[in-house]
Write a structure and sequence with these properties.
Oligomer: single chain
Strand order of the largest sheet: 4-3-6-7
Number of helices: 1
Largest sheet: 4 strands, antiparallel
Number of strands: 7
Strand content: over 45%
Distance between the termini: 104 Å
Radius of gyration: 23 Å
Length: 143
Amino acid sequence: MKKTIILFLVAFTLCGCIEEEYYMEGRVNTFDATEIDIALAILNGSLEILHESSKTDCEIVSTGFELSENVHFSNPKTISSGKTRGVFKASAENLKPNTKYYVRAFARLDYDTYNGRGGYDKIFYGNTVEFTTMNGKVSSNKE
């Protein structure tokens, strides 16, 4: 009887410490830029939801891209593409001619307050890709 009570207390203690997860897990991918011109490029990415708890109180706040001339993304330009699951795109405009840029897609998820705890945000980043804008010199055709 004593062993049964001890086993019950151990099992109850262990089960009481395990809390159901309330979260959404995402994977963000950055794809090659397209339609690259002198001062413009189309940025491409995707958000894939890998796991979503049935009790998740979470929403996609924003998806978009960070763009930088520095591979370390110091002082990046943020370009929003909305709140999209799946494939998303955005236009990077007013770029410098003949310049190498680094870009990575992101998704920001907002986890609301639950179980008496405060909410928080989590940002998922995709891989980094690079592209170079076209040369800004205009060629002349002389016949």
